[in-house]
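Exercise 7.
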Amino acid sequence: MNARNFFAPVRDSLKRNQYGGVVGGPIVKDKLFFFEGYQGTIERTAPATNTAYVPTRDVLNGNFQTILAPPCQARQVNLPSSIANNNILLPGQINPIALKVAALLPVSADQCGKVLYGVPRNTNEYQSVTRVDWQRNPNDQLFARYFITDYTLQAYCDKTNLLTAGTPGQLDRVQSITLGDTYLLNTNTVNSFRFGFSRSAVQRVTANGIPTTQELGSNVWAPIKNYIGQFQVPGYFTVNSIPGYVMNNLFNVSEDVSMTRNKHQLAFGFNYVHAQMNALGPFQMNPRMTFNGQSVINGAATGNALASFLMGRLDTLLQGGGQVGRENQNLPALYFQDNWKVSPRFQINAGIRWDPFVPQEAKYGYASQFDLAKFYAGQVSQAFINAPPGLTFPGDKGFPGNAATSSRYFDFAPRFGLVYDPRGHGTETIRAGYGIFYDSSYLWNTMHIPLNPPWGYTITVNTPPGGLSNPWQGYPGGNPFPAPTVFPKDFQFPTGGTYVFEPPDAKATYLQQWNLSVQKQVGSDWLVTASYLGNKTTHQWLGYEMNPAVYIPGSCVPGQYGLIANGACSTTGNTNARRFFALAKAYGQYFGSAITVDTAGNASYNALLLTLQHRMSHHFSVLTNYTWSHCLNQGEAGQDIVNYYQDTQNRRAEWGNCAADRRQIANASLVFTTPQFRSTWLHRLASDWQASGIYTFRSGSWLTITDGTDISLTGLGSDRPNVAADWHVANPGIKQWFNTSAFTRQPAGTLGNAARGTILGPSAWNVDAALWRTFRITESTKMDLRVEAFNVFNHTRFANPGTSLNNGNTLGQITSALDPRIMQLALKLAF
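Solution. The predicted structure, written as tokens, is:
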């Protein structure tokens, strides 16, 4: 082969449009129809080992002496004397409903309550592809593609172990269809039209027979069957299998024109996407119950999550309506690009793209905004006249339709790149580029807004006096559920309502990206590349709590800050009474947590990438690369609007290692083909086989140590402890990955000084392999046989250790690992 072939894409790039369509070229057959194939995979995976801590027989009898002492705890824990006598619960302290929940858990023979359990993974997956190609005339080529895949993960629950219900099953179907027309207007101009539609239907289902807390006797409303709700005992066990569904439709239309004029290849066109979402997230329709041992009742907290659970002492109750999503969004875009071949050795690419930000809209008008100035001024909504001041809704003056924020139409994204052959030999290139790329938010991103009152009716109660048996005891008006389904103009808003907002002037996230690479061809088959990659994310969508609780030191009397008895002025039980809005205005009591999107987040990434490649020749190909990089950000942006900051007034204090930061990543892949043997039988048996292997290595991720409880008493749940020593240990292992004594809880009402992303988790390496061959049955029918093995050496790849001080005996320990060796066999028939 000619040594220049490695760089053929550089020389030929002027002949192709941005979608790879060739300008000119040979004409194919007139009309073609293909059923590309049908492929199915059935997987039965042995259960992975999970770890939890459940009540022992002694604990079920109220005896916590062993489980609260070393080695079960890092240090001795003592229950208050008003609760227990020498760590034995006083008579009548055990809650009968807690015992019913405990009866659904295995009883551990381990003195610390440790249990190991697994959940079988039974999956079925099927997919098929159909395509049609039609060469209508020498200048016009049309095509159609249809793809469908089904995926089923069976829901599972061992009736003797509720912990196995922690993972929902899945019933998923994805379909897509693409239509295209490529028309050769003349020898220098090509027009490409594309239309696409895709639909994904993702359903989460739970196993039959899982009781709700209402069925177990708690005085709550739990309408979703086979869903116990989010039941959390931090450091011990959690059951969190949430059902629901998300249906997404995506329509895409694009028109692209590519033409050559002398040394220029000009490309321009438009792209229009219409996205729709139909979803239900019922995660809080059955109540979320959290026991963390911090609730002060009768002057004392247990200080232990398991003791609070067994006593039925709820720390937090959260309940509301479902996340009803009927969202849609329009994403138009225009672009222009010029690829200018200045000389045979130098090429410049420049272009610009118009990417306006058009926010999604809620079909049912489930949208609201908050204005702090209107809150202080006492201005109320006209759409809902009983809403607390500061809130506005669709129908109010100035509200942007059914969207939660406003459009921005002047977002332009320039791009620039160059390719240079320094010596003109065709064996080296220097490439550089810079561009701005705008992003759009997830359709799901605003799905917490439908949970705002009045629609979602989300209510949080801290330290409910009725505990697990009667969580709504003492709530004004009693149990507010089932929630109303009709929302008249004079709807009565609940106290302590939970809200999430987008700011009226939300800015679209954009990425500045730059790169520089040098490539050198060695011989005729090898290529060496060194690249620098960098990017900067601006206006990253994070979030912060506008209405944190204020820590008030000292002791108070009944009636102050929501207290009903003498005691500390600040407890987890009077969080809402101490919130910023409630202290500022009497009507502030209608607001509990109020989180808003912060579009001022930042992130950066810089990397050195080294690559060695051998093209497919002499029956093998090789691709290896090594990346040395560093990623920093102020929070891990996700699909939900949540509070990201320990201190809501100090975003910069969150600047730290990304959770996905892997300082070192190495990959190597090999593909080998057997030669064509001359012997007939040897050819039949050994020719045409292909084999591949992939080796991967990555360094550990960066972890954040947390208190696990609201030590700051701000109601944020993002507390980090104080750093007292170096976290490193001489020989990290699964029993102690880091020095747990290096972190201590900060004084009540304060924030710790531990930074975000400071503990390095375990690294991992892995080898996957495959062997396959295509058997020709007839001229138009063939069958592919493929054998694959993942984690060939069955090498243990550890998960991250526990990083919450509230994890008790799992703090600093690794209790789970990634998948063991998995092997699968696949057959594919194409005709």
